[in-house]
Structure formats: C-alpha cells, structure tokens
Amino acid sequence: MRGVTLPAGASAVDLAPHRNNIGCASAQEPGGEGLDGFGRFLPARMLHDLAPALGLARGRGAGTPDNVACEGQLIRLPREGAVAALHAVGAGSGGSVQETVQLRPDPGSAGTGLVIAFSDVLARHPAPGESCCAQGDFFLDSDGEAVPGAVPRLWQVTAACPGTPRCSWLQLPYNPDLHLFGLWVSFADRQEIPL
Hints:
This protein is an all-beta fold. The chain has one domain (11-187): Jelly Rolls. The protein contains one helix and eleven strands.
C-alpha cells in the first residue's frame, strides 16, 4: 500500500459534481445502498489520509457521496489538450470491472476509447498494472458490523492513451459497479497554469 502516486504535471479532474455514491460509512452511521448496492461500506477512516488527493475534505463524515458510480457521466477535463494518460483510483464492486471511457473534443463528438480496469474492492492482490493505494481493516455490513475476513482495498491504475488525442471531455461508461474515487489526466502538451 503506497497512497496515491502521480507523475509530475498530472492534473486533477473535478469529480465533485458527479459523485453519486456513498461508499464509506462508520459503525455509528450505517445505512443506504453502500458501495456495492447491498448496504456494505468501506470504513470512513480508510479515506482520511487520501482525502486531499481525492478532492475530498479531510475528516469529512460518512454519509456524503465520496465516489462516482459510473452511469455515463460526461465530465469536463481541467483543460483542452493532447491527453497522454489517465490515472484513476477506484475499485470494482461485485467483481473486477473493465470498461471503456471515451475521450472527446466536444460533448457530442466521436471519441477515443480508453480502457480502465479495477480489481474488486475485496480482491486480495492487485492485477497486473494496478497498485493498492489504500486498505481498510474491515468492511462494514448494512448494520454497521465488520464482515469477518473482509479487507477492502482501493486500487490505482494508469491507462496510457494511444495517439494522444486533443480532448476537453471524458465520458464514463454505464456500469455502476465501476467506482471512481479520484481521476487525473496527464497532457502530452504541457501548459503552465498561472498561480
């Protein structure tokens, strides 16, 4: 487990308006569909150290949306540019997931497909090209009780983009079992951003 590791110059994609799933809870605040749709949650403290990197408030409470369950959301990239790679933190629920996101120059235009894959949140080992960036001590059931033997993990992946297309938008696939907690983009054409 190593936390979130990003290459120099990677720009965060603002997921805040698209966060639609409450994946974390505490034993004192269980309830709802949870990460997997069956009321099971990651322990809230699992995200505390990662919160700033993920664009979440440090120490934020359970019960607020903390991830994007992919349902075809159209997301604006930090700027228009030639995309070299996407870097993502997330997990699958109900098994490992592999889906294609579309990089688009304009919302209605044809896109360039890029495959994003995550192991299941309860997988014990990372898949090739994946690393564990957070691990919890337990997985909570719908009653706020620890599930025996269940150790949740969040995974980090990088997907290199062939041909470095110029894009401003990213469209997520429709698969609510693919959960994104953080997303960054590396541009091939570096641009200084004024402070």
